[in-house]
Amino acid sequence: MSKKQSRYERLTEQLRELLKKSPNTQAEMATITAILHHKMPDFFWTGFYLLNENGDLCVNTYQGPVACQILAKNKGVCWACINQKKPIVVKNVHEFEGHIACDSRSNSEIVIPIFSKKNGTIIGCLDIDSEKFSAFDDDDVVGLTGIIELLTV
Ligand code: SME
Fold first, then answer.
1. Are strands 57-63 and 88-90 parallel, antiparallel or unpaired?
2. What is the predicted pLDDT for the residue at 81?
3. How far apart are CA 33 and CA 25, in angstroms?
4. Residue 6 Cα, ligand 1 centroid: separation in angstroms?
């Protein structure tokens, strides 16, 4: 098992315990954001974008520099994840057509879709940026998808 895989395993167990005490989904997302941002190396921006009733993708709880509040529709990495309904890993954001640069220091990015457990529809995504190039790989997809599974949505 890689160092990153075992780190995700530890954090998942820690979050499983912490989320037992979360009163609602908002508290769960805030706790996930805090743990990931402070315990994973190279996470420069960590947060959630959720679809609202108008179909806009709006920023929710996050840690890191101030981010775009609403993401221009069908543009960039988060919308690619929403439209394709699958995780997106971008090794170099400057080469991603339509990438929305909320902060010019970001160089790579991963976005994980969030599906409602009630009806399976996509409700938003977890978005993480790194100042490093190629910071994310399949280990992050697996680890972060497992963590998103902990959400009661
Ligand atoms: N880069 C994202 C926008 C959100 S920020 O990374 C926080 C995108 O292209 O959708």
1. unpaired
2. 98
3. 12
4. 27
